[in-house]
TrEMBL record, chains A, B:
<keyword id="KW-0418">Kinase</keyword>
<dbReference type="InterPro" id="IPR000595">
    <property type="entry name" value="cNMP-bd_dom"/>
</dbReference>
<dbReference type="InterPro" id="IPR014710">
    <property type="entry name" value="RmlC-like_jellyroll"/>
</dbReference>
<dbReference type="InterPro" id="IPR018490">
    <property type="entry name" value="cNMP-bd_dom_sf"/>
</dbReference>
<dbReference type="GO" id="GO:0016301">
    <property type="term" value="F:kinase activity"/>
</dbReference>
<dbReference type="Pfam" id="PF00027">
    <property type="entry name" value="cNMP_binding"/>
</dbReference>
<protein>
    <submittedName>
        <fullName>cAMP-binding domain of CRP or a regulatory subunit of cAMP-dependent protein kinases</fullName>
    </submittedName>
</protein>
<feature type="domain" description="Cyclic nucleotide-binding">
    <location>
        <begin position="13"/>
        <end position="116"/>
    </location>
</feature>
<keyword id="KW-0808">Transferase</keyword>
Length: 190, 190
């Protein structure tokens, strides 16, 4: 499916934007292509955009004080990603985003998102809904960390991203769960 | 300050609602009073509402599989709280909310929030902004957990809630940080 059609269908699940208005809305999104391994956003960068994934798979990650990588999110088609704290607070990125596979995204600047939201009540509704899904997913991930039950976290991950185990290197799945590769192998075989 | 005025000023920071419209908006909020220690929302409850705190201090918490309590959020005047995952997915609460002090809240049902958001573009804007703040705070808290630097987490907590150390029993601050009371004492004296 073309990127434009994918975005249109994604928004149409929540908000109704007229066909002729959608052309105008879409003109604010900038298509970008990236190669496997390429960085979209790096720690310390100024953050102006958020990204709607149209093909491939990205990861949003964080390197802690002990140089241990944690994956916050895998982003596949129709997922949105950015460092939202940096984007809204106009602070340097603490989260990095790069490409697990070749990938294509639509990039929307913060300024354009705010403009479109003020022009279209239905888009404001869409972005409220979208932000709310992100908030709930983030809360769920926080609770998973607090609950400290690795097996349950692994099952949640597979139900959130069913195709992930075959798509993504095992060390990245371990980095999402915050466990070693050995622990992951035991979980998968049990 | 009266509850109504507090809510009006809180919304006015983000969205402009006419004086006469605000009376109508406010009529959807139900004032409720609670005593210190009283439960507002308990694990397993059906969740229909979110709560805007107008006086006192609440805690939103979670008990894990090892019966260890984690505090997700302290909610003070002008903060909103609920189990948002349960509220939006219509699943039983996994988060509980109770009162650290006597407290007053304004309760808004999900149905009324959606109605008001569709009636007033500006309120939709307000709730998008509010949800976004929640999302960012939740991401920040998740990163804190991943970073696993207790001293930094403690400093973040005090900057988020400067009056907290004198207001809230120490074991609750420890439950927010996920540390023992002894570790908290060492942090505070260092």
């Amino acid at each position: 499916m073309e990127a434009k059609e994918l975005l249109q269908q994604h928004i149409a699940k929540i908000a109704s934007i007229k066909e002729e208005d959608f052309d105008y809305v879409f003109s604010h999104f900038k298509p970008m292509s990236f190669k496997k391994g390429q960085a979209i956003l790096s720690e310390g960068d100024k953050v102006d955009c958020e990204y709607f994934v149209t093909s491939g798979c990205l990861k949003a990650f964080f390197i802690n004080d002990e140089i241990k990588m944690y994956i916050l999110q895998f982003a596949m088609p129709t997922w949105w990603t950015s460092d939202y704290a940096a984007l809204y607070n106009q602070t340097p990125a603490t989260i990095s985003v790069d490409c697990i596979t070749d990938a294509e995204v639509l990039c929307l600047s913060s300024e354009d998102r705010e403009k479109l939201c003020s022009e279209f009540h239905q888009l404001e509704h869409f972005f409220r809904w979208r932000t709310n899904r992100g908030y709930i997913a983030s809360q769920k991930r926080l609770l998973s960390f607090m609950n400290n039950n690795v097996k349950k976290r692994y099952e949640e991950l597979l139900s959130l991203y069913p195709q992930l185990y075959n798509l993504v290197p095992k060390h990245l799945i371990a980095a999402y769960l915050g466990v070693s590769r050995e622990t992951l192998s035991r979980l998968h075989s049990s």
